[in-house]
């Protein structure tokens, strides 16, 4: 529970401080010693003579139990972890399990069921009553994102509390900016958009939103969502939200609005396929206010019911926060095609660079000192200034077409039924055209990457499904080509954004 209703003598935990001086107190517990006239609280910390003065929003009620008394079976909250992997566990609840190691306790995370070894100083002991009191406070204040995280996996959640949370989320009208990170403002040339209100750290959750409508992806998706919207607006409270938050969203070009309803035009502009439920599309009104960039600094993690926007990198105060409306691994032309009918053209820094030189169409020269371009606006014939090797763009694109046709074959039942050793021999001539030392085809084009991934997979299946003396060499080849795939993927995804699409992670699998 946030600290606005705390009194002198209450045991509290400090959290959410971001300054260099203040962040060292995050996770520390103590008691409220004094409440100043400016509304700040003086905290007497345990095992420290320091008494920081903290805003109430950076305090929450904690158990008065000493953390040194944590035992097996206790309910604890993880706090104060600072490593890249560990900080994602902060604020998660868990149960202390048998099997402690020196200096650490085994904690079963309620939300995931995983067991983690955590130092005692990073554990805050709680009681069931404290947790339920915090949960009720979050519900009353409308902090549904924190409430949902708090209750996930807990075995003792009252049915009435769970039902109240479910009902609030199901309305599809709830959204919240988290931790004072963002502000919706006018952005020159773009309409509305979000700017960072303070310094934001990579990985921070910025905004939580619920889907106003969603449906299965298909030819009638927009009409089905239009019907859902009309049905929901029969309730006045939802109708008011619909009028102010949905019907004010950007719509497509005026020509499109002349031949279809305004709502359909808004849906076509703002509805996107969801990440966690790829067979669904959804409308998130608050998330829709984020402007697009192909070198995004934030990412919308979406399901058919909810969305959480997180920072992909550290963001300066005052900087615009953008998400990508399309897969960032795609070449510029493919990205532009996805924006057709949405009423804008992207002119981000990445797009400006790729108009001149798209990395997915670069072909390194054999000498290693120059790269040719197979891009549409590149010259048909090019010569390396270092070794005088000639490069024909049409020839390179012809090889790329052969690669695309081979990838199409690899998706057929015939390829699936073929002996992996035969597939290796079939793929090998094309693979030799795209590996280092060849200047015949682009090395990091999506089709090239897919070919290398298919080649890696064929070696993997040859090593695991076909007995013989080749198995050891096939294993080695599988991993070697998988590394080439990941290097090429990193090149495509590294153009100004830390985002990694599903395409990237799927490439790690055979």
Give a verbal description of the structure.
The chain has 15 helices and 25 strands. A hairpin with a 3-residue loop joins strand 19 (298-302) and strand 20. It is 34% helix and 21% strand. It has helices at residues 128-141, 144-151, 159-170, 221-232, 236-246, 254-259, 262-270, 332-338, 349-356, 393-410, 413-417, 420-434, 446-465, 471-493, 502-506, and strands at 11-14, 29-35, 41-45, 53-54, 59-61, 75-78, 93-101, 104-109, 115-119, 123-126, 175-177, 182-187, 191-196, 205-210, 213-216, 272-273, 280-283, 291-292, 298-302, 306-311, 320-323, 362-364, 371-373, 381-383, 390-392. The strands form 7 sheets. The chain has a 5-stranded antiparallel sheet, with no helix packed on it. A 5-stranded antiparallel sheet has the order 9-8-7-6-10. It has a 4-stranded antiparallel sheet with strand order 11-14-20-19, with no helix packed on it. The chain is an alpha+beta fold and 510 residues long. The two termini are 46 Å apart.
Summarize the structure in short.
The protein contains 15 helices and 25 strands. The protein is α+β, with helices and mostly antiparallel strands and 510 residues long.
Notable features of this structure?
5-stranded antiparallel beta sheet, 510 residues, alpha+beta, 34% helix, 15 helices, globular
Write the layout of secondary structure elements.
Elements: E1 11-14, E2 29-35, E3 41-45, E4 53-54, E5 59-61, E6 75-78, E7 93-101, E8 104-109, E9 115-119, E10 123-126, H1 128-141, H2 144-151, H3 159-170, E11 175-177, E12 182-187, E13 191-196, E14 205-210, E15 213-216, H4 221-232, H5 236-246, H6 254-259, H7 262-270, E16 272-273, E17 280-283, E18 291-292, E19 298-302, E20 306-311, E21 320-323, H8 332-338, H9 349-356, E22 362-364, E23 371-373, E24 381-383, E25 390-392, H10 393-410, H11 413-417, H12 420-434, H13 446-465, H14 471-493, H15 502-506
Parallel strand pairs: 18-21
Antiparallel strand pairs: 1-2, 1-5, 2-3, 3-4, 6-7, 6-10, 7-8, 8-9, 11-14, 12-13, 13-21, 14-20, 15-17, 16-17, 19-20, 22-23, 24-25
Helix pairs in contact: 1-2, 2-3, 4-7, 10-13, 12-13, 13-14
């Amino acid at each position: 529970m946030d600290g606005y209703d705390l009194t002198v003598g209450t045991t509290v935990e400090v959290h959410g401080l971001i300054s260099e001086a203040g962040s060292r107190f995050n996770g520390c517990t103590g008691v409220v010693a004094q409440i100043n006239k400016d509304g700040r609280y003086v905290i007497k910390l345990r095992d420290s003579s320091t008494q920081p003065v903290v805003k109430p929003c950076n305090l929450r009620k904690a158990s008065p139990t000493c953390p040194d008394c944590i035992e097996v079976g206790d309910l604890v909250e993880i706090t104060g972890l600072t490593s890249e992997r560990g900080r994602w566990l902060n604020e998660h609840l868990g149960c202390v399990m048998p099997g402690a190691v020196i200096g650490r306790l085994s904690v079963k995370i309620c939300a995931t069921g995983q067991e983690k070894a955590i130092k005692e100083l990073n554990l805050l002991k709680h009681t069931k009553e404290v947790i339920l009191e915090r949960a009720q406070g979050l519900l009353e204040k409308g902090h549904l994102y924190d409430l949902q995280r708090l209750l996930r996996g807990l075995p003792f959640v009252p049915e009435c509390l769970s039902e109240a949370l479910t009902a609030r989320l199901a309305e599809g009208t709830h959204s919240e900016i988290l931790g004072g990170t963002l502000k919706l403002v006018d952005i020159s040339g773009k309409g509305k958009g979000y700017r960072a209100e303070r310094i934001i750290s990579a990985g921070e959750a910025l905004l939580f939103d619920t889907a106003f409508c969603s449906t299965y992806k298909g030819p009638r998706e927009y009409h089905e969502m239009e019907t859902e919207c009309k049905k929901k607006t029969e309730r006045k409270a939802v109708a008011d939200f619909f009028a102010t938050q949905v019907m004010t969203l950007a719509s497509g070009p005026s020509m499109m609005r002349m031949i279809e309803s305004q709502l359909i035009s808004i849906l076509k502009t703002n509805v996107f396929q969801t990440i966690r439920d790829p067979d669904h599309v959804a409308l998130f009104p608050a998330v829709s206010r984020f402007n697009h960039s192909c070198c995004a600094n934030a990412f919308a993690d979406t399901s058919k019911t909810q969305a959480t926007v997180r920072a992909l990198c550290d963001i300066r105060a005052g900087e615009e926060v953008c998400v990508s409306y399309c897969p960032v691994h795609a070449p510029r032309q493919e990205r532009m095609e996805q924006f057709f009918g949405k009423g804008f053209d992207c002119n981000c820094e990445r797009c400006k660079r790729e108009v001149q030189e798209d990395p997915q169409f670069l072909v390194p020269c054999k000498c290693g000192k120059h790269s040719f371009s197979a891009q549409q606006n590149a010259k048909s014939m090019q010569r390396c200034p270092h070794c005088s090797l000639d490069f024909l763009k049409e020839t390179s694109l012809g090889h790329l077409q052969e690669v695309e046709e081979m990838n199409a074959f690899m998706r057929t039942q015939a390829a699936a039924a073929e002996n992996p050793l035969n597939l290796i021999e079939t793929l090998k001539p094309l693979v030799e055209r795209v590996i280092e030392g060849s200047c015949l085809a682009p090395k990091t084009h999506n089709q090239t990457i897919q070919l290398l991934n298919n080649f890696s997979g064929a070696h993997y299946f040859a090593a695991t499904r076909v007995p013989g003396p080749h198995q050891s060499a096939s294993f080695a080849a599988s991993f070697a080509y998988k590394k080439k795939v990941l290097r090429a993927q990193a090149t495509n995804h590294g153009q100004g954004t830390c985002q990694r699409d599903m395409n990237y992670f799927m490439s790690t699998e055979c």
